[in-house]
């Protein structure tokens, strides 16, 4: 989700579509699983199935629900032998189009939909009977991060694994009938204890075992003992320097370490030791009534810096749970905004909020090992003019001792990025007692610095960026790529060479090279890799590649790399900027095709594209279609994807080549 002040269900209704034609389109396009094609390379076989009736969740291949490849408007062209990404780009799709699109020769299969039962005792999804009890055992709402964790642990299987999926937030206005008044969408929402509690259970994380059958079709295993949901109420604990902070204690939890739930889990990272660290992003939106704190309460300034609403929240959860009412529980917001580590291979593990990684609107964190074996985590604070950071562990990763690695994130140092105009940069330590981070400036301990990470970054003079989203490291060239999704509030005169456009609607991507190619370095160089937008816009830049050949792209969000080091970019916001559905784009970063950005996938009406996640063999890419239909209301849906009825269901899809080839190579 973008910053919540940019996405408001009261005002975003621009994608009003033609949902009534969707089922006709689907009926025409799709036929019951019938199409089989093998591949010597991977024995992949892909099936095409009807969109309805809804798929049964089972490992039986006959239950797969596969959506056919996109509108076959673009015929494959002969790729040059030298091309790093020879697939044929698809055209941008109009914002009313409520089906996915991929190049000819690829298929898209919905794998996990909101409401799909993931435990053996979970009920089937029922639009008319949504309960917190059911939702807690079903796949939750608004999938974002997707992590494929091979099974068994330590293997590089591309046929069996655990899918770890973030479930960022809810769209109650399209989930529940009557939530918004169709005649007056500005009126207060009509919510209830049942709705709020269902929303709480729809948030969090899902761990689901999946496997690829001999015919190449992905299914999930509803009965797997690994399957697990973390929600907005799951017990978790907290570690690191801020764990003992007074401000983490509440009336319900005098220990400060018995926290309920994780919220707004946007993207995440996989650690080298096989855990996942999920990011709490726009946590501020769940709290209300902060303005009722006395002006001399020092917590008020901090909550304000983090955007906690002064008045009622938009969702009104504070009317049903006092912990979301800051006037009653002033400390509860301090228990959010942290990265949370979970072990998908151990469903009994109590998730741990890792305070050394800082407290802000974490987009994600990406883990990489330094040459000496330090765990390094890059992480961005996704709001306008916020900073990006990295954590460096004190200890070294030990490939022989997983248990020891489990505490690597509890000792180290957090740094914030300062980018100089000359293309160099520094990582500035957020170390209590160093520089301005002293008691004279209001910091009382290392934990206090971390609770107030944003304020510490302010004092250090970190570089104010255009909404840092995903940050990923390229395993081939070792560089770091930072998606900056947009910042329409940046004014002329407030630009810098790293954020060079005023009213940056389209976003850009930075390429950062750590000095010595060492991810634990404290100095780096950087350059602009891409200035996004319609290539006809003279302010765009595609690493110098001829612009007449590239696809329009806007609002880069999630990033990934394939095995060749090509960059894959998922977007969030194209409908509002270049008037096309969000999508996935591939672009080489080295050689003569550096900057040759091509669209590979288009999402559906109202939805952004998240993930992306490759299997180790790169023959499948998983994508999360988040908030399909956002911009509608229940009575006036603009999407019914993927089922073709009632309303949209955010879903993870698997994209594969019919031939079984590596993604992007055909
Ligand atoms: Fe949840 Fe910054 O996207
Ligand atoms: Ca987003
Ligand atoms: Ca994101």
In the CATH classification, which architecture applies?
Answer: 6 Propeller
Count of distinct strands? 31
Number of helices: 9
- Report the uncertain regions: 1-5, 8-79
CATH homologous group name: TolB, C-terminal domain
Beta content: 25-35%
Cα(first) to Cα(last) distance is 32 Å
* Helix and strand composition category: mainly beta
The level 1 CATH classification is Mainly Beta
Shape: globular
What's the number of structural domains? Answer: 1
Portion of residues in helices?
under 10%
Question: What would you say this structure looks like, in words?
Answer:
It contains nine helices and 31 strands. It has helices at 22-29, 132-135, 172-175, 193-202, 298-305, 402-405, 446-451, 453-460, 574-577, and strands spanning 106-113, 143-150, 160-167, 204-212, 218-220, 228-230, 235-239, 259-260, 265-270, 276-280, 339-342, 352-354, 366-369, 374-380, 384-386, 388-396, 412-419, 424-429, 465-466, 468-473, 480-484, 508-514, 523-531, 541-542, 556-561, 567-571, 583-587, 598-602, 608-614, 620-626, 651-657. The protein is 8% helix and 26% strand. The longest helix has 10 residues, at 193-202. Strand 25 and strand 26 form a beta hairpin. With 666 residues, the chain is mainly beta. It has one domain (22-281, 337-657): 6 Propeller (Neuraminidase). The strands form six sheets. Strands 13, 14, 16, 17, 18, 20, 21, 22, 23 and 24 form a ten-stranded antiparallel sheet that branches. The protein starts with 21 loop residues before the first helix and ends in a 9-residue tail after the last strand. One calcium ion (CA) binds next to strand 9 and strand 25.
């Amino acid at each position: 989700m973008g910053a919540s002040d940019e996405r408001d269900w009261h005002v975003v209704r621009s994608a009003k579509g033609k949902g009534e034609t969707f089922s006709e389109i689907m009926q025409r396009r799709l036929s019951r699983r019938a199409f089989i094609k093998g591949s010597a390379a991977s024995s992949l076989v892909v099936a095409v199935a009807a969109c309805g009736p809804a798929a049964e969740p089972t490992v039986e291949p006959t239950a797969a629900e596969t959506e056919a490849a996109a509108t076959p408007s673009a015929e494959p062209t002969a790729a040059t032998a030298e091309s790093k990404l020879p697939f044929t780009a698809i055209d941008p799709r109009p914002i009313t189009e409520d089906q996915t699109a991929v190049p000819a020769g690829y298929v898209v299969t919905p794998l996990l939909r909101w409401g799909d039962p993931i435990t053996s005792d979970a009920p089937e999804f029922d639009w008319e009977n949504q309960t917190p009890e059911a939702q807690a055992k079903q796949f939750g709402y608004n999938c974002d991060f997707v992590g494929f964790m091979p099974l068994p642990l330590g293997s590089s299987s591309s046929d069996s694994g655990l899918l770890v999926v973030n479930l960022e937030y809810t769209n109650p206005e399209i989930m529940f009938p009557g939530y918004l008044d169709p005649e007056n969408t500005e009126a207060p929402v009509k919510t209830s204890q049942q709705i709020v509690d269902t929303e709480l259970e729809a948030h969090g994380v899902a761990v689901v075992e999946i496997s690829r059958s001999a015919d190449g079709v992905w299914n999930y295993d509803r009965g797997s003992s690994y399957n697990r949901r973390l929600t907005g109420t799951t017990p978790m604990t907290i570690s690191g320097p801020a764990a003992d902070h007074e401000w983490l204690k509440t009336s319900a939890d005098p220990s400060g370490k018995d926290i309920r739930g994780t919220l707004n889990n946007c993207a995440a990272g996989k650690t080298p030791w096989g855990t996942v660290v999920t990011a709490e992003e726009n946590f501020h939106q769940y709290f209300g009534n902060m303005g009722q704190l006395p002006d001399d309460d020092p917590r008020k300034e901090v909550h304000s810096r983090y955007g906690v609403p002064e008045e009622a929240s938009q969702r009104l959860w504070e009317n049903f749970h006092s912990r979301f009412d800051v006037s009653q529980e002033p400390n509860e917001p301090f228990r959010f905004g942290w990265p949370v580590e979970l072990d998908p291979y151990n469903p009994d593990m109590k998730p741990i909020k890792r305070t050394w990684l800082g407290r802000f609107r974490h987009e994600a964190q990406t883990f990489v090992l330094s040459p000496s074996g330090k765990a390094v985590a890059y992480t961005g604070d996704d709001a306008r003019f916020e900073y990006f950071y990295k954590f460096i562990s004190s200890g070294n990763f030990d490939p022989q001792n997983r248990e020891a690695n489990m505490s690597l994130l509890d000792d180290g140092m957090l740094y914030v990025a300062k980018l100089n105009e000359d293309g160099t940069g520094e990582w500035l330590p957020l170390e209590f007692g160093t520089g301005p981070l002293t008691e004279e400036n209001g910091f009382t301990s290392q934990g206090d610095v971390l609770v107030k990470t944003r304020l510490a970054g302010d004092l250090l003079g970190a570089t104010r960026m255009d909404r840092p989203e995903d940050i990923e490291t390229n395993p081939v060239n070792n560089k770091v790529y930072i998606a900056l999704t947009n910042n329409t509030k940046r004014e002329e005169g407030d630009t810098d060479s790293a954020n060079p456009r005023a009213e940056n609607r389209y976003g850009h991507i930075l390429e950062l090279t750590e000095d010595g190619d060492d991810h634990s370095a404290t100095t780096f160089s950087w350059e602009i890799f891409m200035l996004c937008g319609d290539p006809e816009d003279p302010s765009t830049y595609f690493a110098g590649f001829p612009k007449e050949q590239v696809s329009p792209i806007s609002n880069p969000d999630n990033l990934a790399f394939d095995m060749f080091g090509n960059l894959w970019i998922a977007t969030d916001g194209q409908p509002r900027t270049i008037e096309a559905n969000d999508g996935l784009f591939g672009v080489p970063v080295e050689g003569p095709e550096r900057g040759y950005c091509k669209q590979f996938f288009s999402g559906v009406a109202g939805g952004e594209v998240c993930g992306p996640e490759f299997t180790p063999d790169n023959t499948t890419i998983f994508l999360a279609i988040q908030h399909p239909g956002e911009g509608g209301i229940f009575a006036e849906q603009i999407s019914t994807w993927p089922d073709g009825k009632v309303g949209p269901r955010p879903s993870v899809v698997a994209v594969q080549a019919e031939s079984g080839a590596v993604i992007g190579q055909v």
